[in-house]
């Protein structure tokens, strides 16, 4: 089964190179053709005069990248951190990819070597001739949390060529099912679909994988641990009860004190943010950013961001979001702990196409950058920005609040410090039973649930994604997972109810 991974690298950019690099990236990102190429005549006048300058008809042929799900270049302009220190400009390069990192980097260089040299020549330092691979690896930045919406599926399995992808199978089966005369029974429909697959010549991709199943580790480990606890409880029941009670008391005290301190720190942070706002003044126009440390507070930045969304003919979208982390080790430690939990849940529990109850995220990741002073967020998702944010607010506001309440100018949040554990237990029970009112599913108060403030804050800290590429731009997360179910069930035996459910997927 192919392993889906995330690569990200950051490269410093001198101030005098910011505008030329920005123009080149805009030209690349706005001229990706339907054939997923960027033609030389669209960017030639913006390229530096380097020995490795691209030659030929195309500057970059994205369609030749067989391991890349999503790819982006984003220019992070000069900014200020939460304590007023300057942050220099940098170029972020990120991919969501299949297989080993070394093989992925080798393919990037083989397919797009001259384009990489041209783009990174604006960085400081620029890559040495023939040294692109160590250059990329040296600038790599690890993620704190990474989520996959369709784990275990390779690009070729999802949207490959040579009649190997599951999308090609779905199309072949759909044509067979639509042919006249219509099948009289469900069994006849399945027989026709199997015949259609054979006639189409479809073969499963060599990298086809099964979706991952929820797992929190080795089954034998948990059996052994459970047996030890059971033995301890049987041999010394009084001590077992005392240890459990003591552990719960310590946990409640620790979380309660931690949350109380965070609430006190939040008052200090709000006072600091008010002083900053008074010092720097309101944004230049009503739609500008409230946060004085955003590099461009004008409405123009917002217009550029929104212009790059909802591209015609695509059902997918992208977001790049960067925001300052509130000062102090306690804030950083809290943020890291929450992201560790998100990463654990995303890799072990939410592996069937939904992050919580959100079924529209292909890949998402959080990265600490600039010496842990800022939080960078990349997301590749389906449909509109409004529906995406709405899903998060309605279905995952606790996760949003837990992460971003540690960043500047986030909507006011109150942590019910001494009630976190009871609320977490109610949340688990209500999730399992699918009952209970919405208040039983809240860990935090306010925060992302202040909908208009949260949406404004999100826009304030979004930055333009100049270059964004998707290998399968016409498929949603639901489409990808549905196609896998179709392929897995084509030659499986089904009961009556299962057969009807499978046929509805085709």
State the end-to-end distance. Answer: 24 Å
C-alpha Rg (nearest Å):
25 Å
- The overall strand count is 14
Number of domains: 2
As residue ranges, the low-confidence spans are 436-440
What is the percent of helical residues?
40-55%
Which key phrases capture this entry?
single chain, 506 residues, alpha+beta, 2 domains, four-stranded antiparallel beta sheet
What would you say this structure looks like, in words?
The protein is an alpha+beta fold. The chain is 46% helix and 15% strand. Helix 5 packs across helix 15, helix 7 (219-235) packs across helix 8 (237-280) and helix 10 (329-348) runs antiparallel to helix 12 (397-404). The radius of gyration is 25 Å and the shape is globular. The relative contact order is 0.14.
Question: What is this structure, in a nutshell?
Answer:
With 506 residues, the protein is an alpha+beta fold.
What is the secondary structure topology, with strand pairs?
Layout: E1 4-12, H1 15-29, E2 37-39, E3 58-61, E4 68-76, E5 79-80, E6 86-87, E7 90-98, H2 101-120, H3 132-138, E8 145-148, H4 155-159, H5 166-178, H6 186-200, H7 219-235, H8 237-280, H9 299-307, E9 316-324, H10 329-348, E10 361-369, E11 374-382, H11 385-395, H12 397-404, E12 413-414, H13 420-433, E13 445-446, H14 451-460, E14 467-470, H15 477-489, H16 496-505
Antiparallel strand pairs: 1-7, 2-3, 4-7, 4-14, 5-6, 8-10, 9-11, 10-11, 12-13
Helix pairs in contact: 5-6, 5-15, 7-8, 10-12
């Amino acid at each position: 089964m192919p392993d889906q991974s995330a690569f990200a690298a950051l490269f410093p950019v001198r101030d005098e190179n910011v505008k030329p690099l920005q123009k080149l990236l805009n030209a690349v990102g706005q001229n990706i053709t339907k054939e997923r190429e960027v033609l030389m005549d669209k960017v030639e006048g913006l390229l530096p005069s380097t020995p490795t300058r691209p030659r030929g008809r195309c500057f970059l042929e994205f369609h030749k990248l067989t391991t890349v799900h999503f790819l982006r270049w984003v220019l992070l302009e000069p900014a200020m951190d939460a304590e007023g220190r300057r942050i220099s400009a940098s170029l972020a390069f990120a991919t969501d990819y299949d297989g080993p990192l070394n093989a992925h980097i080798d393919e990037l260089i083989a397919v797009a070597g001259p384009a990489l040299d041209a783009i990174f020549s604006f960085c400081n330092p620029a890559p040495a001739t023939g040294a692109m691979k160590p250059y990329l690896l040296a600038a790599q930045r690890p993620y704190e949390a990474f989520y996959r919406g369709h784990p275990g599926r390779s690009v070729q399995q999802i949207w490959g060529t040579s009649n190997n992808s599951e999308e090609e199978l779905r199309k072949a089966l759909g044509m067979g099912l639509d042919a006249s005369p219509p099948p009289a029974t469900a069994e006849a429909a399945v027989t026709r679909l199997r015949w259609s697959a054979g006639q189409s010549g479809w073969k499963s991709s060599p990298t086809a994988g099964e979706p991952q199943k929820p797992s929190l580790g080795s089954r034998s480990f948990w059996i052994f641990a459970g047996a030890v606890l059971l033995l301890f409880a049987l041999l010394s029941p009084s001590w077992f009860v005392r240890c459990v009670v003591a552990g719960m008391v310590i946990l409640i005290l620790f979380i309660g004190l931690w949350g109380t301190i965070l609430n006190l720190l939040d008052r200090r942070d709000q006072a600091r943010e008010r002083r900053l706002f008074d010092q720097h003044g309101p944004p230049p126009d009503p739609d500008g950013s409230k946060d004085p440390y955003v590099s461009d507070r004008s409405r123009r930045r917002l217009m550029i961001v929104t212009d790059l969304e909802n591209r015609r003919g695509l059902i997918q979208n992208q977001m790049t979001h960067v925001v300052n982390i509130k000062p102090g080790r306690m804030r950083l430690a809290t943020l890291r702990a929450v992201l560790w939990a998100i990463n654990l849940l995303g890799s072990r529990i939410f592996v069937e196409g939904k992050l919580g109850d959100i079924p529209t995220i292909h890949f998402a990741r959080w990265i600490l950058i600039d010496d842990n002073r800022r939080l960078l967020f990349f997301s590749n998702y389906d449909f509109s920005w409004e529906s995406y944010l709405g899903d998060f607010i309605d279905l995952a506001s606790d996760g949003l609040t837990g992460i971003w309440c540690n960043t500047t100018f986030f909507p006011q949040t109150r942590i019910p410090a001494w009630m976190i554990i009871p609320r977490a237990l109610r949340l688990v029970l209500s999730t399992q039973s699918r009952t209970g009112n919405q208040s039983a599913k809240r860990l935090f108060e306010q925060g992302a649930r202040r909908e208009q403030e949260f949406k404004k804050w999100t826009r304030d800290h979004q930055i333009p994604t100049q270059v964004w590429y998707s290998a399968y731009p016409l498929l949603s997360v639901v489409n990808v997972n549905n196609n896998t179910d179709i392929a897995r069930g084509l030659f499986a035996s089904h009961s009556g109810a299962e057969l009807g459910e499978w046929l509805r997927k085709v």
